[in-house]
Write a structure and sequence with these properties.
- The protein is α/β, with parallel strands linked by helices.
- It has 2 domains: about 120 residues, Periplasmic binding protein-like II (D-Maltodextrin-Binding Protein, domain 2), CATH 3.40.190.10; about 100 residues, Periplasmic binding protein-like II (D-Maltodextrin-Binding Protein, domain 2).
- It has 8 helices and 14 strands.
- A 5-stranded mixed beta sheet has the order 2-1-3-13-4, with helices on both faces. Strands 11-6-12 form a 3-stranded antiparallel beta sheet.
- The longest helix is centred in the N-terminal third of the chain and has 22 residues.
- The protein is globular.
Length: about 260
């Protein structure tokens, strides 16, 4: 009987040890582009801290920086990009980074300081799209969604201005750094702008000429180095992010403009 009690005590000790390991403090550095994405991550970080996962949210002002930092090992995880952008970065820069779970759809929109609706766009108007390949394609797709241009049917996520087959309003399309697009609105008739840069610049997404909808193929994903794809702290942090409390936070804070994928 005494030996049985020792065995049971030892088993209980192992269970407690396993639980303690599962609850042990873990530190994560999570990269994100500046703007509303970071607000959501910070809310998830507050929840994860209750489970001993302490996530430091690090904001970057340039889209290339979160992947540079991730590849260099300066951060553990990032959440700011869609798969086409990540694929292009891996291809052109040789990064050892993979996509993990989906997070949110952050709609691109057409914004203007001069007109209030698409019907007011005049012949020969000047607009702009991001100058990186994948987001340039995304911008062109939005112009097509607005009925302003037509692209080759097979252009897809690699579309460029050379794939425009119909431009009935003879739009002049400039290609600018994504972060510069809101500031360029003073010199443009309208422009494609990503939501994070729009909000950071004080633009109101609800006043956009058009926004992407929930059928967008450009939803954001978490990304990490392959060796960390099963890291328990990363897996749990993403689970907490993709939870009902975070979904409700997004709904309340952003009024349905930012869309969840869970």
């Amino acid at each position: 009987m005494f030996r049985k009690l020792i065995t049971l005590a030892a088993a209980a000790g192992l269970i407690l040890s396993a639980g303690a390991l599962a609850r042990a403090d873990a530190n994560l550095k999570v990269g994100v582009s500046a703007g509303p994405y970071a607000d959501i991550l910070r809310y998830a970080a507050d929840l994860s801290a209750k489970e001993g996962i302490h996530a430091q949210i690090i904001e970057f002002t340039d889209w290339t920086q979160p992947n540079e930092a991730l590849n260099a090992g300066d951060i553990d995880l990032n959440n700011f990009q869609h798969v086409p952008y990540l694929n292009n970065q891996v291809k052109t820069r040789g990064y050892d980074i993979i996509p993990l779970d989906k997070s949110i759809i952050v709609p691109f929109g057409l914004y203007s300081k001069k007109i209030d609706k698409i019907a007011d766009i005049k012949d020969g108007a000047t607009t702009a799209i991001p100058n990186d390949p994948s987001n340039g394609a995304r911008g062109l797709e939005l112009l097509q969604q607005a009925g302003l241009i037509k692209l080759k049917p097979d252009a897809g996520v690699t579309a460029t201005v050379a794939d425009i087959v119909d431009n009935p309003k003879h739009l002049k399309i400039k290609e600018l750094e994504a972060a510069q697009l809101p500031r360029a609105l003073d010199d443009l008739d309208f422009s494609v702008v990503s939501l994070n840069y729009a909000v950071s610049a004080g633009l109101d997404p609800k006043k956009a000429l058009i926004l992407e909808d929930d059928h967008s193929q450009w939803g954001l994903v978490f990304a990490a180095k392959p060796k960390n794809k099963d890291n328990p702290a990363i897996v749990r942090f993403i689970q907490i992010y993709r939870s009902e409390p975070v979904k409700e936070f997004i709904k309340q804070k952003f009024g349905g403009v930012i869309l969840t994928t869970w």
